Amino acid sequence: MTRTNISIGLFGFGCVGQGLYTVLERSPGLRARIGRIGVKDRNKARSLPTELFTFDRHELLNDPTINVIVELIDDADEAYTIVKEALQLGKAVVTANKKMLAEHLPELIALQRSTGTPLLYEAAACASLPVIRNLEEYYDTDLLESVEGIINGSTNYILTAMDRDALSFAEALAKAQELGFAESNPALDVQGLDARNKLVVLLTHAFGLVTAPENLLTIGIDRLSPLATTYAREHGYALKLVAEARRLPEGGLVAAVLPTLLPPTHELARVQDEYNGLITQSGFADRQFFLGRGAGAFPTGSAVLSDLSALTYGYRYEYKKLHQNQELILRPDAAELDVLVTYTDEIEGLADDFTQVHEQFRSRAHGHYLTGTIGLAQLAQATWLHTPGVCVVRLPGPLRAAVAVGAEVAAVAAY
Fold it and tell me: Which of 25, 250, 392, 399 is 20 to 30 Å from 345 at the Cα level?
């Protein structure tokens, strides 16, 4: 197959943009070069000749010598404008902006189809892990049952530092920022929103379901309580932020992003620092595990490089599963899970939201907790979920089809 030479218009020259430049310099066989670089800050010192840079996006978008746009900026709204204009102009696009993709995916898929112009975004899911193309191609004819994983390297680094190095949440976050794994404004990471945006992208390629980010229950690690981390340690569990999507036996799909307790034998329990891990479960291939760095300039740059290489061979996403699974819908009302809820003040009617309460603990000195089974939709709609002092962590076990059970308390302890 003949490879096409590509000339790149690069938007953004921060950590990932510089990483891509370095990776391209070390990959002469790729037949790709950076023609111009679009940036915003006119006063920032640059490590490359000034003539390579421009402050006008149209100089890149309208340059006839540039045939591929690489978008690596952190402004999702500006990224959307750049990507949309590039596709309309017939220029292939590679992006790593998962927030922009999650918010505009239906429109961008339609735009690709109408213009015949490819948009690739391997770097938007799990940095160095080649998961999107595998989900798009490898599992096309294999019945995929579930995907679950650690898909945010920043939060995994923070949780690892809290557990292994006994750091507080604030200390671990500061260290992650110092190492470049977390942004100066870490809300997208620690609130679970970055993982949620990535899960939206994975749902599209794994199951052919396109949904809005707000349709997925998402709980981050920013409200973890000392009681929850103590519970995890005393029971020998690893605490991870896990994104999961699973087919239900009776039809439909459930998906959520939740802090999750994992037994030490679970593959994801052993994923440390800024690494990502993704597990696929399918009818024929059974269980497979992907592991790789999920944060940093070179891991993300390597995923962009992979997309650029694919473009030289004329590759594009075909979104075949969107046609195969047109009737697939999210069914949070048909799923349940086991959770640990810790809280500082009494919550009236808390147990009433559970189909089964397994254990309750009350302590004036240490706080209170409850463990039990609750419907996924019920949890998402619970009035106490966002109450100050409330922490929710999923107990070991997958999202599963709901089975109605009368609420009962297995054990109650009060001190």
Answer: 399
pLDDT in tens, 284-297: 889 999 999 887 77
Question: What are 210's two structure tokens?
Answer: 């396109």
| CA-to-CA separations, 385 to 58, 115, 340, 371, 382, in angstroms, rounded | 46, 44, 12, 14, 5
Buried b (16+ CB within 10 A) or exposed e, 306-333: bbbbbbbeeeebebebbeeeeebebbbe
Note the pLDDT tens digit of each residue in 108-121: 999 999 999 999 99
Query: Domain 332-414: which topology?
Result: Alpha-Beta Plaits (3.30.70)
Q: Kindly calculate the radius of gyration of the chain based on its CA atoms and give it in whole angstroms.
A: 23
d(CA 161, CA 148) in angstroms, rounded, equals 22
Q: What's the rounded mean pLDDT across residues 364-389?
A: 94
d(CA 109, CA 388): 39
CA distances from 86 to 4, 70, 191, 308, 337 (A): 19, 10, 31, 16, 43
pLDDT at 409 over 50: no
Query: What is the four-CA torsion angle of 262, 295, 155, 78, rounded to 10 degrees?
Result: -130
Which pLDDT score is estimated for 404? 57
DSSP-derived letter for residue 185 is S
Which two tokens mark 151?
A: 């898909």
Nearest CA-CA partner of 124 in 147, 148, 105, 143: 105
Pairing of strands 144-150, 275-282: antiparallel
Active site residues: 198
- pLDDT tens for each residue of 207-260: 999 999 999 999 999 999 999 999 999 999 999 999 999 999 988 999 999 999
Which residues are within 8 A (CB) of 176 and not within 5 positions of it... i.e. 6 or more apart? Answer: 154, 157, 158, 161, 182, 186
Please state which of the four CATH numbers 1.25.40.10, 3.30.360.10, 3.40.50.261, 1.20.1730.10 is assigned to the domain occupying 141-292. Answer: 3.30.360.10
Global confidence as pTM: 0.94
Residue whose tokens read 């009962």: 408
Q: How far is CA 415 from each of CA 191, 233, 342, 360, 366, rounded to the nearest angstrom?
A: 32, 20, 15, 11, 9
**What is the rounded distance in angstroms from the CA atom of residue 271 to the CA atom of residue 249?**
29
